[in-house]
Amino acid sequence: MNLPHSVRLVEVGPRDGLQNEKQPISVADKVRLVDDLTGAGLSYIEVGSFVSPKWVPQMAGSAEVFAAIQRQPGVTYAALTPNLKGFEAALEAKVEEVAVFAAASEAFSQKNINCSIAESLARFEPLMAAAKAHKVRVRGYVSCVLGCPYDGEVNPAQVASVARELYAMGCYEVSLGDTIGTGTAGDTRRMIEVVGRDIPRERLAGHFHDTYGQALANIYASLLEGINVFDSSVAGLGGCPYAKGATGNVATEDVLYLLQGLGIDTGIDMDKLIAAGQRICEVLGKANGSRVARARIANR
After folding, report:
1. Using CB atoms within 10 A as the burial measure, which of 47, 82, 206, 213 is most buried?
2. Enzyme catalytic residues
3. Where in the sequence is the domain holding 55, given as residue range(s)?
């Protein structure tokens, strides 16, 4: 069994986590969350999203958040940019890395962004050209890689096709997302095996929601397949507005506990991470979604 010596966690809580909250969240609270996560040792934080506030109201003010956070050397502060307009706004905010997203399911693509998979990929072409011109790195997301709320099962070959397009387009890394959290360890390994035929595994990442309680099992399965980058959300914040019942991305605290138990280095301080998650949960007035955080807090 060959496990990686180190793993990079991509913290998506400030974006993927908060965008699904119904109550308004102040710029100051968002800034505090990002700074807390930086202080906990996260080396990659997805801070916000440059999308229309009409569609994702919680991401309004992302430029103000980027202007106020205490950026630290060696930490990547990224943003989601669905189109060229979003990319240009991110550039003005001095964002150093952006992400684009496509779906492995036609039905989900239509429900989520009102266009086909092919149309969504075509929209990225001017963005990718602008990113290359400005030397901004682009990360790609593929959603619904292990199931779709509308189409049901998703063929790994379709996942590979979309991931291949993003990689060929210039995305330096492609994150494979189990958006509705229905995947199992066996599904995960089969999907990675197929996608890994076209894209080097060191250029792939895992993004697992925990709806069915399988996220950690899927991460372990991914580790066995040579994946060493995983997206996670502090306190398990998030969900998917287009996938009824889907819970948030797997909690960063829970992933960290798994990795620590395997002797895998992340450079993250568990106590500071738990404090960051608990603080934002208190702001939101909701229970902490991390099992590890709840257990540690209860035993203090």
Report:
1. 206
2. 240
3. 8-298
